[in-house]
DNA sequence: TAGGCCATCTGGTCCT
DNA sequence: AGGACCAGATGGCCTA
């Protein structure tokens, strides 16, 4: 449904991705219904067996007891009648039946919670910070999702790119400190930098097209490997590096990785963001790998141009040169030659 | 060990 | 009556 809503909006691929995810979820839920029904059927068959057994053996006994109850009531005719439903004796059979009902209800409740959890898992995959190995908590997932929707709405509304710092700040509103660090880390932003930048506006470029204060960013993005993103830059000193988090920002401006839909990527529904996979420990950091696996995003209106003044190396090259990540913004100047046409299109859009 | 998070059970309420 | 939904209780697991 949302896909249709955004279909004519050539605005932001990520928004469309998000919309299509919600559609996927609708399908997912109907799939789940079938599965839940199946698992419930197992309970049902067990229960119907026990119930039919009960009806056959104990049921008769139960009827007898009901008659017995009525009989006793007739005998107490002169006593004032109690209002409300008659309290029936808890016979063995009734206890059994109530136990079965309870088991059924428990099974339903379990299924319901499982559905809820898998919906949350799906949500985790599309918010800007996803890891199979260390999941965001439920509450943090919901908060982040809310912020994410808000941020996307803002982008849609303004039709312009936000400043990365503002974007991360929006995403992290109301999140716990660990999650904030996580998201910032995912976005390759040093959390301390972005938190202390509040109000300082450090390192921003307020260009004529700027809605939040634009920065002629160039963004380095490494290829995702398995469930983890590739190691580089800030990640080397980031405590979250080992958790395999991947994150999102530049997907708003284009898919920087060719493998988002491949089975290698463990979050196929994730927004096509690879703000650089920081956290892989597997990746061989040979120069060849650098060459092959670095995908970068050019955020400047001038493709290939180097941002003046505050261009900062924040890729593996920065790492090699031993620059401490805390003093850097996570942007690099690499532009993958294959991607250049796409960047031009995107830049054209954002500078219309 | 305390605190956070989670799964599960349970009883209550509302709706069909 | 039965199912969906909800919230409280409880116990397990993990981490700082």
UniProtKB/TrEMBL annotation:
Annotated spans, Disordered: 1-108
Cross-referenced Gene3D superfamilies: Helix-loop-helix DNA-binding domain (4.10.280.10)
Biased composition (Acidic residues): 57-76
Location, primary (coarse class): nucleus
Coiled-coil residue spans: none
Domain BHLH: from-to ranges: 100-152
Bias-annotated ranges (Polar residues): 1-10
Protein's name in the database: Neurogenic differentiation factor
Protein's organism: Staurois parvus
